[in-house]
């Protein structure tokens, strides 16, 4: 059956390429399925090269084996050069010398020749493999044996280092992917039973020993427990949870045996969603990456045509035309022109950026968002849950004297149980258990206002004062005179009073504002909360642009206004009503801990530990990644252009060509790997 090339939605070819080969080698080395890493790097991409039931290999053994072929060629080349230049021997001449160099060439050259033939057979004529094959076989044809071996040797060494760099980047991601345990201990009838994590049901009780990782999201049943949350947040600082609090898959229990009630299915846990995001991130390519790939596809056949022209055209213009001399120049041109430095190092740079971010608890859904976030000029953020804790506590009840406070609070608690808003949680914690004997009808959530219901034929309204205005309920207080968040209550068409609820500013909120200002980024804070509360938080943090009393559609308008000023805008939020604004912004950032699934799903970047300071860190990672990528592009084009001109004029040899190709590729790869070592 004829091979059909595979392409992604951007038209990028997914098979028969150098990048596919490098990535496949790295994946096989990580999974330890190949019979040896050396055979991997010379594998046939269109046939299985690993026997499934073969014994697994150690990583270090694989990394040693990949240098075996280049080492054999290197030793044979060094011996040949010594015999050529230092120990002139009568026997090392003619066919003996030629066979020796062929033997030195085959360990590194044969796999590449095989790749070139396979690519041509499958319709991909102009590949990196073909360029190197023509250049080295051509060098042998004109008697330049050492250069032919050296070019292929250094090309193979470069390929090995590329594979190791990609492998390292992927292992950093794989460390995150290994955080979810396959089995958990479930308590049934006072018996501890080991069960597959995916087979555990919502409501089951998990027993977690000290040092064990939690396999599913749940609610802590033990009084207290301390957890290492590094898998989710990048922070190793212990996080102490109290009974009833949410604990997430991937957290490690640090003290005594604890029990957790499962609240989310295995596939729906926060960690499962995080792993899915990371695994899919590399499929979303940055514009720079897509351009280089399209460029390489057009560039390679043009290079072959130019090399042919360099070899043939001088015949018509030069008096003393020597074919071998111009063929040599054409071959040098081919070696220099190989686009490996760009094709491998640029994706590696973006992959490294995604890996560095994930280690710090920041998830990018694609390398395109690394590019986008690097250019952000204006950060617009929600107040509650982003700059404040989003954990409310009822401070005081202010109800009318003629109201039965106990009864009113019970029906308010019952109505708020219909909502997932943090305010509802605060009221529930203050009032206590929900009275299920209370029957509510016509329950309705009015976006940006609050809740409405009917009880015993009487209307109950719980929300902000805009809700009371909407239903023409008169009240005798000025809401703006109260600094705290106020929950207004109306019952039976009358104002019944209000509750004051307080939220606290996050400890790193000030650091966030200072860091963003240092980057020269404009900051705006939006909130549906009343003006006195928003002004208090804004003044405390030094944010000059702050807007209050906003409905979800008002937030959308504010973001649209910012974008209309030709600013690149990032919006940071956590609530369900933030999803539309997150989608509208150039880069949507979601708080992944308290954040709603809808917002996390819509966002381009997810901050796992809800720390706003990670906003500036994410922008910095994007800037550093983009900087490294453009350093590599500039280095590759400048060096190649210089040596190409020298080569076409006969002023550069194969050795300069090797540096322009393999040398530049190695420098670019080492530069790309730097992002994985940086501290942000």
Q: How many distinct beta strands? A: 22
Share of residues in strands: 15-25%
Sheet having the most strands: 7 strands, mixed
Quickly give the structural class: alpha+beta
Cα Rg: 32 Å
Distance between the termini: 51 Å
Q: Tell me the overall shape.
A: elongated
Low confidence ranges: 33-62
Strand order of the largest sheet: 10-22-21-20-11-18-19
What does this protein structure show overall?
The chain is α+β, with helices and mostly antiparallel strands. It is 50% helix and 16% strand. It contains 24 helices and 22 strands. The strands form four sheets. A seven-stranded mixed sheet has the order 10-22-21-20-11-18-19, with helices on both faces. A six-stranded antiparallel sheet has the order 2-1-3-9-4-7, with no helix packed on it. The longest helix is centred in the C-terminal third of the chain and has 36 residues, at 613-648. Mean pLDDT is 80; it is low at 33-62. Belongs to the cation transport ATPase (P-type) (TC 3.A.3) family. Type IB subfamily. Keywords: ATP-binding, Cell membrane, Membrane, Metal-binding, Nucleotide-binding, Translocase, Transmembrane, Transmembrane helix. It catalyses: Zn(2+)(in) + ATP + H2O = Zn(2+)(out) + ADP + phosphate + H(+). Its EC number is 7.2.2.12. It is an enzyme of class 7 (translocase).
């Amino acid at each position: 059956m004829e091979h059909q090339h595979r392409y992604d939605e951007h038209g990028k070819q997914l098979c028969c390429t150098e990048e596919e080969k490098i990535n496949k080698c790295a994946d096989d080395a990580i999974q330890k399925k190949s019979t040896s890493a050396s055979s991997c790097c010379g594998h046939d991409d269109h046939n299985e090269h690993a026997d499934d039931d073969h014994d697994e290999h150690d990583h270090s053994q694989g990394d040693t084996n990949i240098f075996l072929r280049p080492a054999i060629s290197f030793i044979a080349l060094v011996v040949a050069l010594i015999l050529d230049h230092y120990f002139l021997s009568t026997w090392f001449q003619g066919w003996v010398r030629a066979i020796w160099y062929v033997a030195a060439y085959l360990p590194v050259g044969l796999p590449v020749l095989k790749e070139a033939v396979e690519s041509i057979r499958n319709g991909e004529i102009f590949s990196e493999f073909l360029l190197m094959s023509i250049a080295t076989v051509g060098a042998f044809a004109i008697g330049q044996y050492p250069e032919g071996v050296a070019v292929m040797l250094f090309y193979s060494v470069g390929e090995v280092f590329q594979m190791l760099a990609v492998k390292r980047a992927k292992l950093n991601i794989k460390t995150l992917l290994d955080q979810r345990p396959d089995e958990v201990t479930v308590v049934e009838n006072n018996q501890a039973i080991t069960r597959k994590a995916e087979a555990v049901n919502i409501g089951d009780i998990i027993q977690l020993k000290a040092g064990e990782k939690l396999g599913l999201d749940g609610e802590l049943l033990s009084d207290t427990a301390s957890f290492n949350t590094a898998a989710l947040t990048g922070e190793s600082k212990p996080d102490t949870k109290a009974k009833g609090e949410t604990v997430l898959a991937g957290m490690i229990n640090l003290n005594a045996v604890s029990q957790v009630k499962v609240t989310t299915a295995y596939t729906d846990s926060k960690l499962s969603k995080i792993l899915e995001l990371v695994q899919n991130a590399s499929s979303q390519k940055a514009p720079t990456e897509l351009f280089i790939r399209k460029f390489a596809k057009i560039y390679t056949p043009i290079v072959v045509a130019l090399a042919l022209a360099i070899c043939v055209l001088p015949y018509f213009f030069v008096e003393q035309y020597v074919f071998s001399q111009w063929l040599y120049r054409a071959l040098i041109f081919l070696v220099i022109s190989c686009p490996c430095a760009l094709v491998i190092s640029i994706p590696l740079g973006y992959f490294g950026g995604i890996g560095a971010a994930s280690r710090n608890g920041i998830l990018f859904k694609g390398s395109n968002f690394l590019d986008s976030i690097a250019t952000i000029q204006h950060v617009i953020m929600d107040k509650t849950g982003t700059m404040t804790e989003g954990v409310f506590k009822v401070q005081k009840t202010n109800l009318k004297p003629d109201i039965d406070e106990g009864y009113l609070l019970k029906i308010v608690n019952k109505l708020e149980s219909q909502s997932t808003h943090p305010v509802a949680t605060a009221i529930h914690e203050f009032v206590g258990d929900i009275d299920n004997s209370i029957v509510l009808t016509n329950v309705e959530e009015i976006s940006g206002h609050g809740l409405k219901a009917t009880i015993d034929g009487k209307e109950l309204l719980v929300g902000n004062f805009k809700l009371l205005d909407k239903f023409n309920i008169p009240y005798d207080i000025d809401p703006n005179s109260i600094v705290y968040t106020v929950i207004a209550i109306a019952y039976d068409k009358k104002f019944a009073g209000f509750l004051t609820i307080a939220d606290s500013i996050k400890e790193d909120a000030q650091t966030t504002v200072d860091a963003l200002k240092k980057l020269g980024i404009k900051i705006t804070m939006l909130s549906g909360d009343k003006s006195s509360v928003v002004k208090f938080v804004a003044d405390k943090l030094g944010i000059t642009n702050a807007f209050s009393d906003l409905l979800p559609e008002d937030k959308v308008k504010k973001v649209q206004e910012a974008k209309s000023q030709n600013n690149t805008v990032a919006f940071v939020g956590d609530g369900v009503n933030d999803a539309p604004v997150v989608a509208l912004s150039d880069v949507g950032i979601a708080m992944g801990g308290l954040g709603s699934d809808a917002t996390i799903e819509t966002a381009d970047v997810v901050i796992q530990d809800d720390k706003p300071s990670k906003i500036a860190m994410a922008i910095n990672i994007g800037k550093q990644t983009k900087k490294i990528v453009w350093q590599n592009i500039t280095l590759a084009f400048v060096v190649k252009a210089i040596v190409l001109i020298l080569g076409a004029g006969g002023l550069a040899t194969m050795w300069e060509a090797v540096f322009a190709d393999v040398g530049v590729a190695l420098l670019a790869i080492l530069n790309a790997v730097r992002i994985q070592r940086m501290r942000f």
